[in-house]
Amino acid sequence: MPFQFRKEAIEEDLNSNFPSQGQGNPPLYYSLSEVVVPTYSINNVAEGSSLPEFLQRAVDFSTGNVNGRNTGTTQTIISNPGFWRIWGYISASNGGSVSVLNLSITDGVSTKQFLENQGNGANLDSVNFFFDVTVFVRSGDSITLTSASTPDNSFAVNYRQVAELNGTLVNPLGYSAA
Q1: Rounded CA gap, 17 and 108, in Å?
Q2: d(CA 44, CA 34)
Q3: CA dist 93 → 47, 79, 86, 119, 130 (Å)
Q4: 23-32, 33-42, 116-125: which has the highest mean pLDDT?
Q5: β-pair type (142-147, 82-92)
Q6: How far is C-alpha 128 from the chain's CA centre?
Q7: In this predicted model, what pLDDT tens digit does every residue of 74-118 receive, in sequence order?
């Protein structure tokens, strides 16, 4: 059977932290009962990782890298499902012709480009594009890098899986919370 009690220390704490509640209002009464109410803390441990998110995205030995110049190819850089951090630069020095470098996601039927650096062929200075994105890759999807064969294209693309398909975080290779 519940009963009520009044605790001045709790009232003072509530009044100092929440001044609009209390302060001249009738005293607060608290009820006790035999019901147990479980509580829990939502923090990094509850998420399944004791590692802060910014450290979880760190470069490690499993980080992939693709770089080159004027390749004139499209290559698949990621085909495993999950969440991937992709970062680096793509550069196009126009050199009198249109130059294109881009990153796309494809499901094998259609392609959606999500990053592009394209010169306009007007002999302008180099156009450098630095990026850092997180991409979700479904089962059957892949990330491709296309580099035109026109002069003065260059790129450096790094990638690392940061979470599995179901959202479970992938810690840096060799990390141990112990």
Answers
A1: 57
A2: 31
A3: 45, 30, 22, 7, 15
A4: 116-125
A5: unpaired
A6: 23
A7: 889 999 999 999 999 877 665 555 556 788 999 999 999 988 776
What are the chain's domains?
A: 3-32 (no CATH), 53-163 (2.60.120.1010)
Question: Which residue has 């990053």 as its token pair?
Answer: 115
Three-state secondary structure readout of 5-67:
ECCHHHHHHHHHHCCCCCCCCCCCCEEECCCCCCCCCCCCCCCCCCCCHHHHCCCCCCCEEEE
Which strand (E) or helix (H) includes residue 77? strand 73-78
